[in-house]
Design a protein that fits this description.
By secondary structure, the chain is an alpha+beta fold. Helix content is about 35%, strand content about 30%. It is built from 7 helices and 11 strands. The chain has helices spanning about 40-65, 75-95, 140-145, 155, 195-200, 205-215, 220-230, and strands spanning about 1-10, 20-25, 30-40, 100, 105-110, 115-120, 125-130, 130-135, 180-185, 190-195, 235-240. Strands 2, 3, 4, 5, 6 and 9 form a 6-stranded antiparallel beta sheet that branches. A 5-stranded antiparallel beta sheet has the order 1-11-10-7-8. Strand 7 (about 125-130) and strand 8 (about 130-135) form a beta hairpin. The mean pLDDT is about 95.
Length: about 250
């Protein structure tokens, strides 16, 4: 299993408030984390970078000592709690950072099993051939309204509250991240991304773009597609796959 990614500020934003990291800890064990910050000119950047740095440190320290058959979820939960407390405390202690937070999508892969945790509207997609499946559910106001039958998916695209997220790292003292598990089989890949990708590049193009990225060992083609679609937000894409460039 390998993981690689790329981030870009896009064409319209002066600062990139997205942040990501991925690291192979040993054969058959790696993690990838992606955050999209929010909260003013500086707050979003601080929240995302703090979260990525803290989660990376905690996971690298703990996962290496875990048994090969140990469920990584408790370690991930503890790391997320630690990062949430860190960002929330920084937000409360510094007036200029008040109210900052960040989305989160975190993947820990051991063998072909990937455990996912997420909060907010950054996403994970499973890619197989030409099939694309969203495996995370957005924590947003419009997602909640759709589930309640109050609006349609088409109405959600232009709803005035479409950017309002309902869970984020650091906003509250406690965070209930959502967990899931994906088995990544040969020929499949997992795409983690911020909304700057899926809001500006058509989802139907993702399978082909992911294949191109894996062949090149570089996620630039996904960034380029979002910028070609307007690049109205920061863009980040991370790919996990068992395939390697020959």
């Amino acid at each position: 299993m390998i993981a690689f990614g790329k981030t870009d500020r896009g064409l319209c934003r002066e600062v990139n408030q997205d942040c990501f990291a991925c690291q192979k800890l040993e054969d058959g064990l790696l993690y990838a984390v992606l955050c999209d910050g929010m909260g003013g000119e500086n707050g979003g950047n601080v929240a995302s970078s703090l979260t990525v740095r803290d989660l990376s440190r905690e996971l690298a320290a703990q996962l290496r000592h875990a048994a090969p058959d140990e469920d990584p979820r408790p370690l991930m939960e503890a790391a997320i709690r630690h990062a949430n407390a860190l960002v929330n405390r920084a937000s409360r202690d510094t007036a200029a950072l008040r109210g900052m937070g960040t989305t989160l999508v975190l993947a820990v892969a051991r063998g072909d099993t990937v455990t996912l945790a997420h909060a907010g509207d950054s996403r994970a997609y499973l890619v197989e051939g030409e099939t694309l499946t969203q495996v995370t559910k957005d924590h947003t106001v419009v997602q909640m309204l759709m589930e309640q039958g109050e609006i349609t998916a088409e109405q959600a695209l232009t709803h005035p509250q479409r950017h309002y997220i309902t869970r984020a790292v650091g906003v509250e003292r406690e965070l209930d991240a959502e967990f899931g598990t994906v088995t990544l089989l040969p020929g499949q890949a997992l795409l983690l991304c911020s909304d700057g990708l899926y809001n500006y590049a058509p989802e139907e193009s993702f399978p082909g773009l992911v294949r191109r990225a894996i062949e090149a060992g570089d996620a630039s083609c996904l960034i380029d597609a979002a910028n070609a679609g307007g690049g109205g937000d920061n863009i980040t894409a991370v790919i996990l796959t068992g395939e390697t460039k020959e």
